[in-house]
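Question:
Write out your own:
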Amino acid sequence: MPANLITLTDPRSPAAEAYRTLRTNLMFSNLDNPIRTLVVTSPVFSAEKSTVLANLAVTLAQGGRETIIVDCDLRKPAQQTIWGLDNASGLTAMLLDDALFENPPLQAVGVDGLSVLTSGELPPNPADVIGSRRMDDAIAVLMDRADFVLFDVPPILAVTDAALLGHKVDGVLLALRAGSARRDHAARAKEELDRVNVPIIGTVLTNAQRDSAVSNYYAR
């Protein structure tokens, strides 16, 4: 079991409950047009974004929603490491092979209702891959197989991938780490997404100071 996934290792903890609250907030954020596809990223490089995505995906699956994680960070992918998966065949293989559109190389991770599509072999032109019509088709195929599809992408201020993929999904969730995330980076990330009309669904703050009153309640 992945040690850094609090929703699996300590499901009764305040942190795990916070992810379930995040799940609920996302599900009720737009009842007329429910969110089904979501990019999770950060302003600058941080491993937090990938861990946030993985924990959120676990809670969605535990809530009875079929969920797929797609590692679209075609520069520094992390989901195969988080879950201990083979990365020989993944998203990039699917985009090149029509047969894999019929049977995507999804991998089970031991959580009912949750599967992962790793990045696969890294291409020389990640932004072109993310922005392609073929990527649109892959998203449609994956949506037919799941209630939620979550995409792990590179940081917003480093490359254009998050903005490109943001136009293809329902919105973007920003992951920020308390104590290290800079306010100006967060503001610039918001400006970048606003500039290209990519909706920001919300922000997740990790490493926040624990509220002892809440912690004591969940310890009982």
Remarks:
- The longest helix spans residues 48-62.
- Confidence is low (pLDDT under 50) at residues 213-220.
